[in-house]
Amino acid sequence: MEKLKIEGINKLKGEIKIPGDKSISHRAVMFGSLADGETNIENILLSEDTLRTIECFEEMGVKIDVDKTNNKARIIGSGIYGLKKPTKDLDCGNSGTTMRLLSGILAGQDFSSSLVGDASLSKRPMDRIIIPLTKMGGNIKGANDKYPPLHIYPSKEIRGIEYELPVASAQVKSAIILASIYSKSKSNIIEKKVTRDHTERMLKYFGEGQFIGKEIYVPGDISSAAFFIVGASIIKGSSIRIMDVNINPTRNGIIDVLREMGGNISIENVRNVNNEPMADIDVAYASLKGVNVDENLIGRLIDEIPILAVAAAFAEGTTIIRNAEELKYKETNRIKAMVNELKKMGADIDELPDGLIIHGKKELKPSIVDTYKDHRIAMALSIAALNVQGVSEIKNSECVNISFPSFYSNILDLFE
Ligand code: S3P
Prior knowledge:
The chain is α/β, with parallel strands linked by helices.
């Protein structure tokens, strides 16, 4: 277990480029593997989670060259029907995206496969994909019909379905879309609440029907940028630029909320890369005010709620976050984790049945905090620690490698 000591700092200053988007990186590997021909991915995130997806496809015979120094990957696609039966269990590690999206693809194969995960993933609900994939004709068995490991057997045929998502989840939507590649009839997926649309965008980019290998540039991950956007907003005297960040409208809710709180954020140089919008983000310190977060925004900032709680803990007044029950089913129960750990730092924060209520304070105190081995909890608490006087200790800080291996070195890039 790595215990990291973090001391409060005066300000964050300068320009950084953060790693590629995790969701887009997973999908680029999946589509590249199913395409005919060669796919070259630049600025791909090579973290614990995305490496699990890469290894799963390698295990199914896809040739993938990874260049860790330059964050590149070259994939020789096997075509939609070219995957080979794996000789061992497919290890998804901590990654819900790997397990849920891959299940959609595997449901349409003529071989059996098993998907396993680590202790955290093994407790996360998989019935949300087992149910719709079974309705499509898939043959999937989970422990107690609900949890990993998942065993997926060949089915007679995959059929399209009409399905209204019972939980707002891009992973469920994507699993259905990917299974639909193997169905002759159309699927109609209805989502009442917005979730990220990277699968739909990439499907169009690779060409619906038959996928052709492509060149892809993965824009920076707004969920990773969010730690620095909040850091610069709450640490007095800060002023930073984050280069090349994905600002997909299904993902940028954190910017809307921080602006409503009084944040000083501007979006510059908007451009398009392989069907995704990308921009540079300028952020300067601002005195934030608490807000009642619009319930319709939750899907657009679901992964940013831990760091939003940190912003709220330092804002003037009360912030209420509701309709966020899904946080209980992430890598850890993120509602409980943020309440427990921010309380240790002296924050006035309480749990609601579906969210959080936070009364902001000018100052918090240094503390020893736990990450529950959840990358986003680790990074949110680290940013909070940067804004208190004295030395805090972050337990199990190495879990940042799940999504953002350069997180701590990127912080150092912004020290003057
Ligand atoms: C993801 C979807 C979201 C998100 C996760 C990545 C994706 O999960 O929290 O980090 O890449 O599709 P849900 O689909 O469970 O909301």
